[in-house]
Amino acid sequence: MDVLVQPVAPSTRAIEGAVELAAGRRPGVLVSRLDGAAMALEERQAHGGRRPELEGDRFAEPILPPDRVILFGSGHVARALGPVLAGLGFEIAVCDDNETGALDDPPSWAGATVDSFDLPDVERALGPIGLCDFLIITTRDHAIDQRVLEQTLAHPALPDLAYLGLIGSQGKIGRFRKRLVAKGIASEERWKRLRAPIGLDIAAETPAEIAISVAAELIRLRNTGAAADDR
């Protein structure tokens, strides 16, 4: 093991800049020179994703936004899933049109709520979606699910999302794909970004079981970069 020890004071500006990047949900790399020079901040994504790595004589540490789950829908599954993911360190935002009064009593585990299912409204309230965002679509209505999925698949930030998941049966997912292909939205490349059905296959049926299944998939993705075995 090699240990690099260097004074922090000359690197204060770079460290403060790294904090600002993370707060603004923008990627960066904090670079330490092995010769002991002050740290430098570069506004770009790290080559190694989430893991620090050596780049020649430089040690590059990724600066990433906090992992954020955006739940579309606040029904039984979302209310079972939210507290589990919050306990795992995810920031949680809940989006619902509140037609059923679901947001009249906002859950304590939700850091933010948005009274709309439309992605433009969500971004106005939460800021741009992208890096380290996990979007989970689990609304009360198939038509709303499809609308949210359509907007997300067409969004330019789709390749940067950490995760896009849709709850539902294989039949529902197949119907959605046919409709969105006909609209010219669901290209093969874009459709591959979708995880559906969501969660690891543990034969989950109840909302509590589905929550464990989805949480396990997100843990696996966060720790290994793989959501689940190919279906």
3D structure, described in words:
The structure is a single chain. The protein is of the alpha/beta class and 231 residues long. The protein folds into 2 domains: 9-63, no CATH class; 68-224, NAD(P)-binding Rossmann-like Domain (Rossmann fold). The chain contains 7 helices and 10 strands. α2 crosses α7 (207-224). The longest helix is centred in the C-terminal third of the chain and has 18 residues, at 207-224. It is elongated and about 60 Å long. The chain starts with 11 loop residues before the first helix and ends in a 7-residue tail after the last helix. The model has no long low-confidence stretch (mean pLDDT 92).
Attribute tags:
231 residues, single chain, alpha/beta, 2 domains, Rossmann fold, four-stranded antiparallel beta sheet, six-stranded parallel beta sheet, 10 strands
CATH-level-2 architecture of the largest domain: 3-Layer(aba) Sandwich
**What is the H level of CATH, i.e. the homologous superfamily of the largest domain?**
NAD(P)-binding Rossmann-like Domain
The total count of helices amounts to 7
Strand-pairing-aware structural class: alpha/beta
CATH fold label of the largest domain: Rossmann fold
* Number of DSSP-assigned strands: 10
The overall pLDDT, averaged over residues, is 92
